[in-house]
């Protein structure tokens, strides 16, 4: 069972479940990234968490993410430390 520390926040009336991933998430295929994201979304929903899962990871010094395009400006404004400061829950996958 994998456990993920998450930042469950509201931004502009939307619930967002930001999940910091290991940096090797960058090197997974887009299909693998999508499968992992979908699994995390399924687990979040089953755990009673409302919102859209947004995986984030560091690539060098840049934070990358998978999110709806409308959220890109907000997510680009965050630093990795901002995400870590907002960790407030844990999600178990498995």
Walkthrough of the structure:
By secondary structure, the chain is of the alpha+beta class. The chain has one domain (2-93). The protein is 30% helix and 36% strand. The protein contains three helices and five strands. It has helices at residues 30-46, 72-76, 80-85; strands at 2-11, 14-20, 52-59, 62-65, 89-93. It has a five-stranded mixed beta sheet with strand order 4-3-2-1-5. It is globular and about 30 Å long.
Mean pLDDT: 96
User: What's the N-to-C terminus distance?
Assistant: 5 Å
Strand order of the largest sheet: 4-3-2-1-5
Rounded to an integer, what's the Rg over CA atoms?
A: 12 Å
How many DSSP E strands?
A: 5
User: Count the helices. How many?
Assistant: 3
Series of H and E elements: EEHEEHHE
Question: Strands, helices and their partners?
Answer:
Elements: E1 2-11, E2 14-20, H1 30-46, E3 52-59, E4 62-65, H2 72-76, H3 80-85, E5 89-93
What's the short story on this structure?
The chain is α+β, with helices and mostly antiparallel strands. The chain contains three helices and five strands. The mean pLDDT is 96.
List keywords for this structure.
globular, 94 residues, 30% helix, alpha+beta
